[in-house]
Amino acid sequence: MKPKVLVFYLCLAIVFAGCAAMQPVSQPTTAVTPEPAVEEPKGLPGSHGPFDSNHRAMRPLGEAFRSVEVLRRAESFTPSELKAITSKTRFSPAAISGCDLEVLKAFVASNWSPVVVITSPVGPKHIRAVIGYDDSAQRITLIDPVNLKQAAQANLEYSDFSKQWDDPQKTCLLVSSQGIGEQRIKTTLKKYLPEEKVESLEIKTLGKL
Predict the structure, then answer these.
(1) What is the DSSP letter of 35?
(2) How far apart, in whole angstroms, are the C-alpha atoms of residue 104 and residue 100?
(3) Which of 56, 73, 171, 185 could form a disulfide with 79 if both were Cys (CB 3.0 to 4.6 A apart)?
(4) Is 46 left (phi over 0), alpha (psi -120 to 50) or beta?
(5) Could you state, in order of their start, the residue ranges of all structural domains in the chain?
(6) Among 103, 58, 66, which residue's Cα sits nearest to residue 86?
(7) Per-residue pLDDT tens digits for 5-22
(8) Residue 72 contacts by C-beta under 8 Å, 6 or more apart in sequence?
(9) CA triple 195-205-197, angle to 5 deg
(10) Are 173 and 115 within 8 A, CB to CB?
(11) The whole model's pTM is what?
(12) Residue 138 — left, alpha, or beta (φ > 0 → left; ψ -120 to 50 → alpha)?
């Protein structure tokens, strides 16, 4: 082979070797796990209910309150006393404090019937279950949980209900034939309400009496 050709091939080999050395070394890639998306509350429906006496939310209410005969002493009952009484039956109670109308509506939209103690315009206190609401009419529907089938439903304007629900703790009571845990209540409410609002509630279940 001629010297000039040999030099040419030698130079070519040096160029290829230099290019290979200059190739960037690939770094191992680290898989990035995306953070789970936070599910935004879908907002409350404009209306829900009213439940009838055969609705699954109503059956435990009627049986629980009839069994402890709360009707005769309703004037002296506070929400905390109601919780203590229902806990003596086979039902599971939960008391939620710091509620407002939106929380009550969220329970109803979840097919739960929260119980509240209201003060009638003439003075006596009454135990009432919230069984429906209608934003277009600005009305909330209540019923006496002791006598579900015979008791007439009461439809109050939101403003009137807020006045009669004068409990300073704004407590409602849930009664279920199944266990009601704090986490279940919060998860249910977060479907409709902002997380900050739900986390601000004070929830007492049977185990926290």
Answers:
(1) P
(2) 7
(3) 171
(4) alpha
(5) 47-208
(6) 66
(7) 454 555 555 545 555 445
(8) none
(9) 15
(10) yes
(11) 0.73
(12) left
